[in-house]
Amino acid sequence: MTKTFTMELAGRTLRVDVGRVAAQANGAAFIQYGETTVLSTATASEKPREGIDFFPLSVEFEEKLYSVGKIPGGFNKREGKASENSVLTARVIDRPMRPLFPKDYRNDVTLNNMVMSVDPEARPELVAMLGAAISTCISDIPFDGPCAMTQVGMVDGEFIINPSQAQWDNGDLKLTVASTAQKVIMIEAGANEIPEDKMIEAIYKAHDVNQTIIAFINRMVAEVGKPKHSYTSCAIPEEMFAEMRKIVTPEEMEEAVFTDQKQVREENIRQVTEKFEEAFADKEDWLEVLGEAVYQYQKKTVRKMILKDHKRPDGRRIDQIRPLSAEVDLIPRVHGSAMFTRGQTQICDVVTLAPLSEVQKVDGLDENITVKRYMHHYNFPSYSVGETKPSRGPGRREIGHGALAERALIPVLPSTEEFPYAIRAVSETFESNGSTSMASTCASCMALMAAGVPIKKMVAGISCGLVTGETDDDYIVLTDIQGLEDFFGDMDFKVTGTKDGITAIQMDIKIHGLTRPIVEEAIRRTREARFFIMDECMSKAISAPRESVGKYAPKIIQIQIDPAKIGDVVGQRGKTINEIIERTGVKIDITDEGNVSVCGTDKEKMDEAVEMIKIITTDFEQGQIFTGKVVSIKEFGAFIEFAPGKEGMVHISKISKERIEHVEDVLTLGDVVKVVCLGKDKMGRISFSIKDVK
Fold this sequence. Notes:
Blueprint: E1 3-9, E2 12-18, E3 27-33, E4 36-48, E5 57-63, H1 84-97, E6 107-117, H2 124-137, E7 148-155, E8 158-161, H3 165-170, E9 173-179, E10 184-194, H4 196-224, H5 238-247, H6 250-257, H7 262-279, H8 284-288, H9 290-307, E11 324-328, E12 336-342, E13 345-355, E14 360-362, E15 370-372, E16 374-379, H10 396-409, E17 421-431, H11 436-450, E18 460-468, E19 475-479, H12 483-488, E20 491-497, E21 502-509, H13 516-541, E22 555-560, H14 566-570, H15 575-584, E23 587-590, E24 595-600, H16 603-617, E25 625-634, E26 637-643, E27 646-651, E28 672-680, E29 686-689
Parallel strand pairs: 5-6, 16-17, 27-29
Antiparallel strand pairs: 1-2, 2-3, 3-4, 4-6, 7-8, 7-9, 9-10, 10-21, 11-12, 12-13, 13-17, 14-15, 18-19, 18-20, 20-21, 22-24, 23-24, 25-26, 25-28, 26-27, 28-29
Helix pairs in contact: 1-2, 1-10, 6-9, 10-11, 15-16
Function: Involved in mRNA degradation. Catalyzes the phosphorolysis of single-stranded polyribonucleotides processively in the 3'- to 5'-direction.
Protein name: Polyribonucleotide nucleotidyltransferase
Enzyme class: transferase
């Protein structure tokens, strides 16, 4: 039996059909918002997965190209691996949903969101976020929802709730906020230097909209929601914790974790674990969950130290940043490089510049193929955390971290008119102990400046953590969290920006939401920390972009030609432009508007190519002087090529001031000569003279 629910949301109708399709899933919602259609399903395994100490949740965002009337490219003509946008969307859905599942739940859960049609006025990512929440809430899967998501854009200073794709792409704000009925549970933002107060206003405008959606979901749950099923709890037995506290006292555990050296802490915990293994040698069921039990013991110890004693594991103050250092130009020959170190987190960033023809083309659910002129890639090798693991390319975490640092710097990049380059920044993680994405932002900013990219302002990033108690007003916000505080804390609140405003936010939490005072304090703390990092560290390594690109970077000369002359430059089947490239070794890009970019490393050859293009596109006038090569000799004269594909004729009478019998008496094939234009002859050919050159 199909049940249909509708609500008006930001000027469009949100329609949800339950029971119409996918009846064998634990929960399914067939959703239309405008004409965007998404099928969202939630399924769970019947039994917990054995041998794991985490909740196995998978979130998928499937982009079907039929949804925008496209046939996939390539030989297979079908969708392949998930696009970067799919991965990032899945992560945004995962982050608010995951904390609302029971912490001791070990059944596999998959939230699948399949995009079936796309209306440019209603972004499919938003519909999938709502669909994931709805399908889970009405299912029998244990879930402490509902939750809801709203997106906010900003055009001409005005907030737009759930903007169209065009408003999202071209506005000054891209904000996604997830909420429960009481609190904000997830924030993701890209912004064009939005002031902190304005950002907080936008966050809570979205939070208010979320409350209307939650009421709508509650109505669906009341009518068609399934009773939540029971499950096998994987919680650690309390009697086990009691025995562990006898073997290693809380004071001894505190001493084991209280150090600023990650390797020392890990060795201490290894020794503690050996004590437990020896003591529990005859209790096989306890040994099976010992790893999780030790983790929980550490977590309780660290949280108590921070919340009650105001002591951090490495001895820092609550608002203190770890030791900072920065340097540029550590890698020779590359176009730009920088290294940023914060405690035991260290990132080396390398920038590469290229002509605009090397921008990345992205074929997705937008109406048109889009391009990325700035690409930021993040790598996280196993050695950065002292582990051994083969490299298998970037995973979802690496893609997400790279996208966050990329989003942080886009607002300060120069336009293509100011700086006609494609730009790639690669962040290599040398060492990791908390918030490498924020270190990547700082390192990338410095590397761009070192490469001579004229960014408008300096950008820095920092992360704040959180430890909460039993009540909403019992909490501590931590500036610059290290790995241990991230693992055992309740929040990872990352903010990047300039001194004038925020450029990106990504907030992950492990609890059921944040109160407004926590959000406001975290944003204030990150602002103070960004200023400190820029003033006390980054600006001392490099304070402004270099005035020009480096020795090994390609140089680009731009000229404007009449668009009607583009065909003359390209030539038949590309013959003319390819000959210019072959002669000079440069790269040439031409836009439909007649903007020509000549790229190379040899200034003399670049100037030569530019001169050829100018000659080809110039209307010839009497008296112009050119340098050309003799390419053909006839009885009546010689043909001179003065630019690729462009020739003029010198009559035998115009070769020498003295009378000659044969052209070969003065000229041979391949001679380079100066000629003056006499206009066009009766046949419309350009006529030259050698003897009249002054």
